[in-house]
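Appendix B, example 12.
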Amino acid sequence: MLSILYSLSDFGAVSILGFDTFTRAIYSAYRSSFDRTGAASLAAILVLLTILILIIEPSLRGKEVNVDSRVRRSTPISLGWFTPAAVALASVWAIVSLAIPTYSLISWNQAGLSQVDTGQVTRALVNSIGYAFGGGLIAVVFGLAISILTVRYKSKITVAFDRSIWLTHAVPGIVVALALVFLSNRLLPQIYQTSTLVLLAYLILFLPNAIAAMQVPISQAPKALDEIAASLGASRLQTVRKVIIPIAGPGILAGAALVALSVLKELPATLLLRETGVETLATRLWNETSVSAYAAAAPYALLLVVVAGIPAWLLNRQVRQSMRFDLNQRMERE
């Protein structure tokens, strides 16, 4: 399901490789004509296709099967005669997915460092970090409020509100960007091609990521603590600030890291909505590769990998700590 939705929404890889997909056709129709109805029609078809997949997917999933959730000590399974084939398959996968891209990136960087514009690279790096920080901060503020509302004050309305937010996660980024272009031109032309509109697009696209990271730690905070805080005269805002946020702090940081990582890699919304002259690592990488200037694109790709690796490492560390905590709790109960 996730692979299908990601394939439908992907823009960068298919554009660089020259494959004709909905996202590439939408962008081409948007850039090649002043009449945006063609791009809007293609976007509407893509949205309908996405909705159709969301409707069909539950019926293909099958019935839920209840399993024994008790924690047991894992036992290694011997593969026997299949061991060499499994090792070879894993090795080939590692070479194709890691070794070859790394070698290509280093080779192109050696060729491209001599022609790199340091000022241009620095500006793209600063813009990328700024957008990542701003997008993560806004998503955490809204995500924290929504997570507390849906976890602490659950009702039919809050559940429906939560699910409506998740629906936007399935909509391709280029469709969201195109919708914001139409709305800003008609209703608020002052924010068209400004950082405000770009951050709004990031909020729509990546708010579910922040909510997913924060809902679990917030739900683990006992509701009895809210009652104790209220009995001591604390307001709801003080309870959130002094009780819930400290307990859910690691999850909040994980949500910010996840959104920041997504913003660093995001391309179609940034291309359509950014201010004139503002470039990020992703947009510079796309601009150079679109004209087959791979040596010039290599420094941007390398910086993007390095910078994106920081929130990825923080997120991976938080996930591992959360898994160990859950495992220890379940073992203690049993």
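Residues 118-170+188-333 form a domain with the MetI-like fold fold (CATH 1.10.3720.10). The two ends are 34 Å apart (CA to CA).
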